User: Fold these one by one.
Assistant:
Number 1:
Amino acid sequence: MTASSARDSVFRPLRHRNFRRLALGRMVTHCANAMAPVVLAFAVLDMTGSAVDVGLVVGARSVANIVLVLFGGVLADRLPKALILQGSNLAAAAVQIAVAAVLLSGAGSLSVLVALSAVNGAVSAVSMPASASLTPQTVPPEELRPANAVARMGVNTGLILGASLGGLLTALFSPGWGIAANAVGFTAGALAYHGVRVPRAAAGTTAPSRPLRELREGWQEFTARAWVWAVVLQFFVVNAVAAGGIQVLGPAIANGAYGRTAWGLALATQMAGALIGGLLVARSRFRHALRIGVAVVAFDALPLLALADTAPLALLVTTMFVNGLAMEQFGVAWDLSLQENVPADRLARVYSYDVLGSILALPIGQMSAGVLAERLGNHATLTGGACLVAAATGLTLCSRQVRALTTTADRAAAEPAVPPSPVP
């Protein structure tokens, strides 16, 4: 296979209009989302100078996610997913306009930022299951692996731009202008999602709505597969540690040791690693992609250790890049595994339980990181978090289902070709 044909195979899903618009909408939306925590963290630090207060603001968003994400899964399995994404983006834009107005007018207070952050989290909760489960409706089944990789590369491109702009706008102008840019990004995302057209039959159902029953059906699908809940438990730990270490203690340490622009660069480098990782995983044909993806999650510990020792910026950036490469290997393997093994009409609900389990500990991590750092010190808090990440990864790999699961593409690649039957 030539280099040109390899590139064509990776980006083949972009031939489909629905997928192009979905990928564009996700990229722009994630760009705006990546800016928000960076800008808000520095807004709170400018206002109070407290890492504990940073945890309260970003934690409020996670609490709202937890409360409403299951409701978002039920909606996404019943209503047109593109419509949900349009509405949630427009609502997020309205909230960010309010946040920007508060910050730019100088009328901001910690309680106002906490409240608006919670509203933004509620909007995000409704959209997350719809965004994650729409990809299989926009491409043929045989293009699902490269489609997931390309979509995630677009997301990571948005995260690179968002993290960089968040640090840059805050350093050159003010947090208020960074949040105003968020509003523009969310509006642009809504326009992109407006162009996604999937068959009505694939987008929802006309049966009477029974939310509790539908949630039970999603729970049954979720618990029926040990590899699903084992990985979600792993990320219960990993995401809590990363949220406290990277989102809360990271800006506080960077504010004194590296500078705000440098911290934005470090976050952007992590996403650059994920972008390159997406190109690699799109062409991969690993027989046990999930096993490898789960194992490399251990690299999440590297940036925590670098921050713990206030390592030179070059070393911190390197660990973030390696972490990004590993993160993408897991992300594509996870999406593909769910999309190929969970019924399409229940996929959004399973995604909602996945999201719930993965983010349930975020407020704990975000709100406790500052407290632990004040009592134990940054080094002990971050080093302990790195140990938790390694332990959670090791325990997850003890699951036989996690180690044995293969995707359809992997199984097909592993099977020997069957010669054609002789013509009589």
Note: The chain has one domain: 14-203+211-412.
Number 2:
Amino acid sequence: MPDDPARFSDLSRPALDAAALQSALTRDSALWRSVEVVDEIGSTNAALAAAAADGAAEGAVLVAEHQVTGRGRLDRVWASPPRAGLTVSFLLRPDVPAARRGWLPLLTGVALAEAVGEVTGVLASVKWPNDLLARDGRKLAGILAEASSGAVVVGVGLNVSTSEAELPGTGTSLSVVTGATVDRAPVLLAFLRAVERRYRGWVTSLGDPVLSGLARDYLAWSSTVGSAVEVTMPDGSTLLGTARAVDWDGRLVVDTPEGTVELASGDVRHVRTRPAEA
């Protein structure tokens, strides 16, 4: 079959090869069952949530070359030019206590940081609960985990070749950081393999973040724990303190002048950041 001409329409942003990804990822995987790449979609998370409602099995991966109604946490809009980033969601059905599922976005962040470092050499850090940051503190990626029909759909948006002009002032991309073109396919494969490796160990440990080693590795990649933070709460109030730890259920433990608070959600801003150790 001849190559798709669209694949080479922009040599700095080639289309992903769905068949090659499917073969490379599922050949030796005990988790990933399918990889689908679509040209355009409203939301990869919404599409997999609908599949979960229809009883779809764990291990489906959906990648969009262009997502037009993507959402981040707190229903923020997330958009990226076509083929400039990795927009991927996957469906999981973890057999762990419900409270432990708060670790899934943290597990995903660690896997993404590992993959980005392995493939591109970019040293990133994870900001609780769902961001991947470059060393200058600008955002490389966001993560959104949503419970759906007994499953969890995890979505990731990673800026790969997005230019400075296409990014908000708080954002950056792998190409901006490296000063070079970055191939999305190796990053995607490394990321999904890292997710599988960590996810299987975490599930085998019944979601125990200590026994699985996830808590230790998360702290090594974290730029939040040990930092002075300002947290905007869901009700709009703010909280100032020092992020001291992440607890057994993935909540951020913050020491404030009024006492210690465990946060299951909130929008965190680093006031003074501790560099990641990884």
Note: Residues 53 and 149 are 5 Å apart (CA to CA).
Number 3:
Amino acid sequence: MKTVMILGGAKGVGKEILKSCIEKGYNVAFSGRDATIANQLIKSLNAENKLYFHELDLNNIDEIENFYLETIKRYKKIDSLILYAGITPVSSILDTEEEVFDSVFNINLKAPYFLLKHVLKSMKDHKSGSIVFFGSAHMDYGQIDRAAYALTKSSLNTLSTHIAHHYAKYGIRSNYLVMGWTNTEGELELRKKEGVSEKDLQQKASGILPMGRMLNTFDPVPAVMYFISDQSAMTTGSIMRITGGEYI
């Protein structure tokens, strides 16, 4: 019986990963800020014994260790860690306020780093584990209005390869999934604030992305399920691009 821990998991692609894990019979610990949404999800899946939600604001890492400890308390070990949660502020170097910079680094980089600090110890003790980082096509240099975001995603790639290199001897694998432009709730909400409807967004994306459409929230899931399965036992340090051909 595998236990999967998701940083995030109540919305977007994270939610679809969670649902796929439940279908496989895995235990899942997930996190987020909205307990109401999480509890509705748990109830809808009728999987109270296989799901644990930990309320967590990633701007503050005080609860990170408790998330880990409660997961271990319930399920004894962590087989896979999915680092999904993140924010994508629209801001160039010239426009970035300190508050925005701190928030994107806290949520996208600091929180995963300190969760890994704890999870790696457990994986090391059990001599196995799979870590999946959610990256972005912005990782190389990013669009001009995604400067801080691009830096966090590049750093996560470095962190993934660092783990792959130094922790393989403990049976721990780490891989980086480059997720392209996806119609998550967060993306749709951001565009709505900009006055762009979902229909207009899809039309715009179809003219930009080589494969002609945005990703939906299901597209990255098979790759994640492969990375956390025993089929990928010798796969580590890899980058998998699920971007519809998009490079930034």
Note: The radius of gyration is 17 Å.
